[in-house]
């Protein structure tokens, strides 16, 4: 096999993947906005802030050399020769092709007040402080026609991109608003930059955890809280398709180091935890934080609130 010197390898590693693709394969680049790109061949391969990560395979790197060996399957000497050929390529003025235009989000009309939404969420144990903050920021509101709770997701520029509806009556009802962009789900950001994000299967579990933090410390905004709208079943090979909301979050927060999984105490939740830890443990610290009581975080919250009421009655 052809050998290649250490010096040539070190030099070749200086070329990042974005520069390589702009020069050699501009049609492969698709802009996802906010300085994030994916490739046309592999839409789960994301480029951001000088790094790349192939989410569906759980591999990543920094350089074009890493990409050519890990994704394209070239030998190291072959990859070095390809990278060295890029030095003769002039700086590219190619503009990556934009992604297909998405349908505009149609937010449900808001009710004159949020009385039924607040009543419903309060019955689920969500504290008034958390609800007040979410209402003031437009993260939740009550729909006018059927009085569903609407959970709104915003992009990095503060534009509403997703809305999920949940019924407040006795019949279970779940629905996404037309034009919902699943990359931007319900999210409570930390007060300041933070390397940790807590992940939940649904918005009410997220609000329940925020309430628990408020009960314990008086503050739920020390770390990022992200609802990912359910968990995906692992593939036959044991790998898992990462939720779109998590992919977008990690692309927008490249300094993230720790993922805390608050998935349900059921087979899909436990299986997803194992798959996520297997998939991401090379790049992140992935912690399992299952509900202490019941099936989900809301069960835990209501159990603890009930316990508090019983203790007060005993006194």
Characterise this structure.
- The model has no long low-confidence stretch (mean pLDDT 88).
- The protein is elongated and about 80 Å long.
- 34% of the residues lie in helices and 19% in strands.
- The chain folds into two domains: 81 residues, Zinc finger, CHC2-typedomain (DNA Primase, Chain A); 160 residues, Dna Topoisomerase Vi A Subunit, Chain: A, domain 2 (3-Layer(aba) Sandwich), CATH 3.40.1360.10.
- The termini are far apart.
- The chain has a five-stranded antiparallel sheet, covered by helices on one side.
- The chain has 315 residues and is of the alpha+beta class.
- The longest helix is centred in the C-terminal third of the chain and has 18 residues.
CATH topology-level fold name of the largest domain: Dna Topoisomerase Vi A Subunit, Chain: A, domain 2
Question: What's the CATH class of the largest domain, please?
Answer: Alpha Beta
Strand order of the largest sheet: 1-2-3-4-5
Q: Using the 3D structure, state the CATH architecture of the largest domain.
A: 3-Layer(aba) Sandwich
Mean pLDDT: 88
Helix content: 25-40%
Task: Write down how many β-strands occur, each being a DSSP E stretch of 2 or more residues.
Answer: 14
Give the strand content: 15-25%
Shape: elongated
């Amino acid at each position: 096999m052809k050998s290649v010197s250490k010096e040539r390898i070190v030099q070749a590693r200086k070329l990042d993947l974005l520069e390589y693709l702009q020069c050699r394969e501009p049609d492969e680049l698709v802009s996802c906005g906010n300085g994030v790109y994916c490739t046309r061949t592999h839409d789960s391969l994301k480029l951001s802030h000088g790094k790349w990560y192939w989410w569906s395979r759980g591999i990543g790197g920094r350089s074009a050399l890493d990409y050519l060996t890990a994704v394209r399957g070239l030998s190291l000497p072959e990859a070095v020769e390809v990278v060295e050929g890029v030095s003769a390529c002039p700086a590219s003025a190619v503009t990556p092709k934009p992604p297909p235009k998405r349908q505009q989000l149609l937010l449900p009309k808001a009710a004159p007040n949020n009385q039924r939404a607040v009543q419903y969420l309060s019955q689920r144990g969500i504290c008034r402080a958390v609800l007040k903050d979410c209402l003031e920021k437009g993260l939740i509101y009550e729909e006018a026609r059927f009085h569903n709770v609407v959970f709104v997701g915003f992009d990095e520029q503060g534009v509403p991109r997703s809305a999920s509806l949940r019924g407040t009556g006795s019949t279970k009802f779940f629905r996404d608003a037309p034009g919902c962009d699943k990359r931007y789900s319900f999210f409570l950001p930390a007060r300041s930059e933070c390397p940790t994000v807590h992940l939940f299967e649904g918005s009410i579990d997220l609000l329940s955890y925020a309430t628990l933090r408020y009960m314990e410390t008086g503050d739920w905004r020390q770390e990022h809280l992200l609802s990912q709208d359910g968990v995906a079943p692992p593939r036959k090979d044991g790998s898992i398709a990462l939720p779109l909301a998590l992919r977008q979050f990690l692309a927008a927060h490249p300094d993230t180091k720790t993922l805390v999984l608050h998935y349900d105490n059921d087979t899909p939740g436990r299986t997803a935890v194992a798959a996520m830890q297997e998939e991401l443990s090379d790049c992140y610290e992935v912690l399992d934080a299952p509900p202490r009581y019941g099936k989900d975080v809301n069960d835990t919250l209501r159990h603890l609130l009930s316990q508090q009421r019983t203790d007060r009655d005993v006194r």
